[in-house]
Design brief:
Length: 618
């Protein structure tokens, strides 16, 4: 018999098998097959290497006189290689079989049917089943094992224990060698391809992600990793919503209407386990529930369809789901800006959304939306935040919006939309989020001194910023309660800060909603005259290792230090011996830093504290 094998038959080793049975006298191997195998091997795919090994076996059989092996046809063009999934290479192979008048040997059922339709002789053999059919590393798991970690040249390790009490421990004293790791990795991937219990979630050169039963397995290979590594994870607990605190209240909240929920917590805290419980509850409550996952690893019932990124893009998945119109969608995990955008779009389209987010505090989960979603829309996107810690519900927040004067401010004209974050159980507000002077501020609400200091500090900084935009010299601010401040400025700045008839300071008071009393530094209890010193004051040596003591000049735009004799030198600026920054003296004999920058703020704060400013050779 004269045969022309296609790529599938070569990879499966069916050609040498036919030759050894004595049925084949001549094998004509298309150059298109050789090119495809070479390309796969160059991409690091095992199938390519297996096919090349089969060609070597055919060469050995030809040397032994068991068969005549010929290489015929032409190599594929780049355009044909890129169109392999559309059948371009298969068409070339069929053409070779027709020209040779030979039988086409294939393990590809589509290729077989097309060849028969074109009148070719076809010898179809079932694809070889690869892999063991089971999970070769399953013996490393017991009922307390959440994940197993294997790598070439290391001892096997695992994370074991209860949720919140996991420990990373060695589970076998024998170091795994490269041959064993390759055997395990190959078996895992081939079993996933051939078994109805598994599938390949991701297959890229150097990285594969396999879903097999309730195991999610990541297989990394060189050059992506510095050695073969297998990480297998599975859930060790499946819970019901009844197992959690606030179960009845959360059930009522979820059933009342479609919600926007963020489930947050640290890695391993039990977020996905809680999300599964929510998904099962919603399904049992007659809601249509879908999931969006990459990779898919939530352990949910068959009634819940699990979707991954369509064409690698969750936006396409969202577009498809909007046609399906689920009542609720579980989004695991929401991490990147694009994910938050997809989450918000679906929520605003009326779909109930439950997102899983990494966060170390409950409020941090909500703050991850800031800057990614328009501030005023956040309560429409997320109205509930659930924080999971050690497998239990630690905190639940209710998120609403209200037009009001933010906590800690008093003027009625400061009223604005404020996002209130309240404790779900007590209804007591714990945080407010709002815009203040074009900045988004998250302020804790409460009676502790630390929280009051946060609001006071914010108000003092805003007063200081406004006055510094007017004054040329130093500015110091003291708050006298929530709506009164005393501002100390240089003698020369009094008139410019107050303005004609007090008009300028009145404008500042109206903008900030705070009564401001303007005084000179001499009037400050325990203060002194002089403020910032004379403009343009240069440095004067103060002796030896103490550096040069300088008096910086504060202008409306810069803080400047005169160093006429040190042009081009790199110097360190210190305050009472503490390092502030390093700079190069410009050609004008001056070091300048822009006001409003972090460096300038530190320098001005040091000046206001009357610290000794010195310059030292860098």
């Amino acid at each position: 018999m004269h045969i022309v094998p296609d790529t599938s038959a070569v990879i499966d080793g069916r050609v040498s098998e036919r030759v050894e049975s004595g049925d084949v006298a001549t094998v004509s191997v298309p150059e298109a097959v050789v090119g495809e195998l070479e390309s796969q091997a160059n991409d690091g795919l095992d199938a390519g290497w297996e096919g090349l090994e089969e060609l070597q076996r055919l060469a050995d059989l030809a040397d032994a006189g068991a068969v005549e092996v010929r290489y015929v046809g032409r190599r594929t063009k780049p355009s044909e290689s890129s169109g392999a999934h559309e059948g371009d290479i298969d068409a070339l192979i069929r053409s070779v079989a027709e020209e040779e008048g030979a039988t086409l040997l294939t393990s590809d059922v589509v290729q077989s049917e097309v060849a028969k339709a074109k009148g070719l002789d076809v010898d179809y053999v079932e694809p070889r089943v690869r892999g063991s059919g089971g999970l070769v590393i399953e013996d490393f798991f017991d009922e307390r094992t959440m994940s197993v970690h294997l790598k070439t040249g290391t001892r096997p390790k695992a994370k074991r224990g209860a949720i919140g009490e996991m420990s990373y421990q060695t589970i076998d004293d024998e170091v795994t060698d490269e041959a064993t790791m390759k055997e395990w990795a190959d078996d895992i991937e081939e079993t996933a391809r051939s078994s109805p219990d598994g599938f390949l979630e991701l297959s890229e050169p150097g990285m594969s992600i396999v879903q097999f039963r309730d195991y999610r397995i990541a297989v990394a290979r060189p050059p992506f990793a510095d050695g073969i590594e297998i990480t297998a994870v599975r859930p060790i607990v499946k819970t019901d919503l009844e197992d959690y605190e606030f179960a009845d209240e959360l059930k009522d909240r979820l059933k009342e209407r479609q919600r926007g929920v963020l489930i947050s917590g640290s890695p391993g805290a039990g977020k996905s386990t809680f999300a599964q419980a929510v998904a099962e509850f919603l399904t049992d409550s007659d809601y249509a529930v879908k999931t969006m996952e990459k990779p898919r690893d939530l352990q949910v019932g068959a009634d819940i369809t699990q979707y991954t990124a369509l064409g690698g893009d969750m936006e396409k998945t969202a577009d498809s789901l909007l046609l399906v119109r689920p009542d609720y969608t579980i989004y695991d995990e929401v991490r990147k800006t694009k994910d938050f955008g997809v989450f918000a779009d679906m929520r605003l389209a009326g779909v109930g959304m439950v997102g899983v987010v990494h966060a170390t505090r409950a409020i941090d989960a909500l703050q991850r939306l800031v800057g990614r979603v328009e501030l005023g829309m956040i309560p429409q996107v997320v109205d509930t935040v659930v924080y999971i810690e050690d497998g239990r519900v630690d905190t639940v927040y209710d998120v609403t919006t209200e037009v009001k004067v933010p906590e800690g401010l008093t003027a009625e004209d400061l009223a604005r939309p404020v996002i209130q974050v309240a404790d779900f159980e007590t209804g007591k507000p714990e945080y407010e989020i709002y815009t203040f002077n074009r900045q988004v501020i998250t302020v804790p609400i409460g009676d502790t001194q630390e929280e009051e200091s946060g609001v006071s500090r914010l108000a003092r900084q805003e007063v200081e910023r406004e006055i510094k935009s007017i004054a040329r010299g130093h500015v110091d601010v003291e708050l006298q309660g929530q709506n009164t401040a005393i501002v100390y400025v240089d003698d020369d700045d009094i008139s410019s800060v107050i303005g004609k008839g007090g008009g300028r300071i009145s404008d500042v008071e109206d903008r900030l909603g705070i009564d401001i009393d303007v005084r000179t530094h001499d009037e400050r209890p325990g203060g002194h005259g002089g403020g910032s010193g004379s403009p343009g004051g240069g440095g004067a040596p103060s002796g030896g290792d103490d550096g040069i003591t300088v008096t910086p000049e504060v202008t409306s735009r810069h803080v400047a230090i005169r160093l006429d004799e040190h042009v081009g030198e790199t110097v360190e600026v210190r305050a009472d011996g503490e390092y502030l920054f390093t700079a190069t003296v410009g050609r004008g004999g001056e070091v300048q830093v822009s006001r409003g920058s972090a460096i300038a703020d530190e320098l001005e704060a040091a000046i206001d504290r009357k610290q000794r400013i010195t310059v030292h050779p860098a």
